[in-house]
Design brief:
681 residues; alpha/beta; nine-stranded mixed beta sheet; six-stranded parallel beta sheet; 19 strands; 34% helix; binds adenosine-5'-diphosphate
């Protein structure tokens, strides 16, 4: 094994909890109230008082006043500019803690803690001071309503990123005008990784000096308060077919175009007239009561119509997934001839599972007849040849009509060309005249949005060098979910859509295997298999102190879970890229993954004998290949064992994976090279 434990090297030998009197912020004062994390819950240093059943609130407040005065004098500032960290919240917290203590829910004290717990605590303590971090946390309780992830985790904000040197972003010599056309965009219209990729790539290209815009449906559920400078720009009639008395009739749909900025990225939002249709209405991105195929065919056409009317001539139209796949067909066979001359088209395939099947008459929702594209060299679905009627496949058409086609990792690209990942579309991708325009570009993640040093969703920020906040995040999650508070128990997390692609049976098995091995498991998932996990949570695993299965979608909670976890489980049956393992590593959480697609590109087993030692992805997690339970056990068992037996080695691994550069920098450079190859000037 290559991962032999390295003793205590790397841990600060003399580090221990040191209480401090004055806080780092100029005008705030922290009391020396936490004396270590002895029982998983912090103990107040106001020992005599907090041991009493009725803490003297007035006494504490009077003491606060005295301290305020002292600091004001020391700093030469008015007393009311001094804030004291020990406040009503602390008092309530103290009470809460006493309650928990009384109920015996706190973990055992460090004197009683098993040696591994002490090692994990010591690791956390040795890597920095915990008291400042701890003092600002509003510790959660299981009985809290609304739940803890719906309110700020700290009553005193803390940002470890302040003062950090700004990241230097290389500027590209040529500047392109790029418009992404997409059904999803993080954070306002996110269902999965597509949304993250659009926002991350758009931001990275903006930073490199390009002009970038995103065209997105103006879904009814978009939170308008998160769209800066939202303004109505123009109204236009988008040509559109509509079913009327069982007949497709060609007409148009009045459409409003809005402009604004989402997460700093300029956006163009298109909204159909809701007096005439219910397209994009409802409280979710997908699954409204409208016809989805009709909605995105309309949207693809409306985007081109908008560009023509507004006179915009971007260099690149970057489209994503089947939802926008009609666009290249409409562009090259119509709009390019109508005067929209400059754009060239890049298609990114995020998941080949849904190829956009479309009957010929349905294509007429775009306002153009489907027969125009029903030939083998265009969009005809080859599986339907000889059927009556023959169908179209939007993704096939887009692969043929786009100037360049990418998918989201090199391995998934290979699997699409030679394995089964692309299904019948493999023959289209592998056609000699198309093969050269297809490549895999590994996704990055938005390292500003996923930054444990500055993440406002976390109870305690942390970095690879100041790592102690991670242990506090774990304790916070354990407390908030009412689990056993124990730093020594390996915590396996899984954040996922609950669909067959994600390996539902292995997630289920992973839960039980983790429990058998003395670990803890937290699942945050939503999707088709919600019911299965909900019944586990409410039945067999109900009240189990080591497992919580949360069948919901919640972004802030996902941040806390990534930060709190020791391991993230990603047992996907196939995975074009996978973002959860990248995000988890950014938060020091070690991936346990099935080696497929992008997971195979980004996670290499710590025990593998071959690998590229110079690669940042080398020896950074645990992998398995088979789709059976035994294969998962092989990876998971080793992970849990290493965590227990070699805590210091594990801590270093966690810190090392945090330093991996998974930003969009490299991937954006690859996309810009691609744009350069196909752009028309
Ligand atoms: P996919 O796009 O196939 O769902 P990815 O790994 O590419 O998978 O991206 C998943 C994204 O969705 C990640 O940002 C992940 O954190 C997020 N996510 C998935 N499920 C949930 C959930 N239940 N709650 C919050 N975020 C989730």
């Amino acid at each position: 094994m290559r991962h032999s434990p390295s003793g205590s090297a790397g841990l600060h030998p003399s580090a221990k909890f040191v209480s401090q009197r004055l806080a780092l912020q100029p005008h705030s004062l922290h009391r020396p109230r936490r004396q270590g994390s002895q029982n998983g819950l912090a103990k107040s240093s106001f020992g005599e008082r907090s041991n009493s059943n009725s803490p003297d609130l007035l006494g504490l407040l009077a003491e606060n006043e005295a301290l305020k005065q002292e600091v004001a004098k020391l700093r030469g500032i008015p007393k009311d500019q001094v804030t004291v960290a020990f406040s009503i919240e602390d008092y309530e917290q103290q009470q809460q803690q006493q309650q928990l203590d009384l109920e015996g829910e706190a973990a055992s004290s460090s004197a009683q803690a098993p040696p591994q717990a002490q090692a994990h605590q010591a690791g956390a303590q040795a890597l920095g001071r915990t008291d400042q971090l701890e003092s600002g946390i509003s510790w959660p309780s299981f009985s809290e309503s609304p739940p803890f992830w719906k309110r700020p985790p700290r009553h005193q904000a803390l940002n470890l990123g302040e003062g950090r040197a700004a990241r230097e972003v290389p500027q590209d010599p040529c500047s392109f005008h790029i418009i992404h056309v997409t059904a999803e965009m993080a954070p306002v219209a996110k269902v999965g990784g597509l949304a993250d990729v659009v926002t991350g790539l758009a931001k990275a290209c903006l930073e490199r000096g390009h002009q970038v815009e995103v065209m997105l449906p103006f879904y009814e559920c978009l939170p308008e308060e998160e769209i800066a400078d939202l303004q109505h720009e123009l109204d236009f009639d988008a040509p559109k077919g509509a079913m009327w008395d069982g007949q497709m009739r060609l007409g148009s749909l009045r459409t409003q175009a809005f402009r604004g900025r989402i997460d700093g990225i300029p956006v163009i939002l298109l909204r159909p007239d809701w007096r005439e249709c219910n397209i994009f209405q409802g409280n979710r991105i997908y699954g409204g009561s409208y016809n989805e195929l009709e909605a995105y065919l309309y949207f693809s056409r409306a985007c081109l119509e908008y560009l023509l009317i507004s006179g915009s001539q971007p260099h690149i139209l970057h489209i994503h997934e089947w939802q926008t796949s009609a666009l290249p067909l409409l562009y090259w066979d119509k709009y390019h001839n109508d005067g929209l001359k400059r754009p060239r088209i890049v298609l990114t395939l995020h998941n080949l599972d849904n190829s956009g099947e479309c009957r010929q008459e349905e294509f007429a929702f775009t306002g153009l007849p489907g027969e125009m594209f029903a030939t083998i060299d265009k969009a005809l679905d080859e599986r339907t040849i000889g059927h009556n009627p023959e169908r179209l496949c939007l993704l096939k058409g887009a692969i043929i009509y786009s100037n360049a086609v990418t998918t989201v990792s090199p391995t998934y690209a290979r699997e699409s060309l030679s394995g089964g990942a692309a299904g019948w579309l493999q023959s289209t991708l592998a056609k000699p005249d198309l093969r050269n325009k297809f490549q895999g570009v590994l996704n990055g993640i938005d390292t500003a949005a996923w930054d444990p040093a500055e993440d406002a969703a976390l109870p305690a920020p942390f970095t690879a060098d100041q790592w102690q906040g991670k242990a506090l995040c774990k304790r916070y999650l354990q407390m908030g979910l009412g689990m056993e508070v124990d730093p020594a128990k390996p915590l396996v997390v899984c954040v996922t859509r609950l669909v067959p692609q994600k390996g539902i049976h292995l997630i289920r098995h992973g839960i039980f295997r983790t429990l058998e091995q003395g670990g803890q498991f937290v699942l945050l998932g939503s999707g088709h298999a919600d019911g299965e996990f909900r019944s586990l949570a409410e039945g067999q695993l109900r009240d189990h102190p080591d497992v919580r299965l949360l069948t919901l979608y919640n972004e802030p909670l996902s941040h806390i879970i990534y930060a709190a976890g020791d391991f993230v489980l990603v047992p996907s049956m196939f995975e074009p890229c996978g973002l959860t393992q990248l995000i988890a590593m950014r938060y020091g959480t070690i991936p346990v993954v099935r080696s497929t697609g992008g997971l195979a590109d980004t996670v290499k087993d710590v025990d593998a004998s071959e690998g590229d030692p110079s690669s940042q992805w080398n020896a950074n997690g645990y992998t398995f290949v088979g789709i059976d339970e035994g294969s998962l056990n092989y990876a998971l068992d080793r992970a849990l064992q290493h965590y227990r037996d070699q805590p210091e080695w594990w801590a270093k691994l966690s810190q090392r994976v945090m330093r991996i550069d998974s930003s969009w920098d490299l991937s954006a450079a690859s996309y810009v090279t691609l744009y350069k190859q196909i752009a028309s000037y």
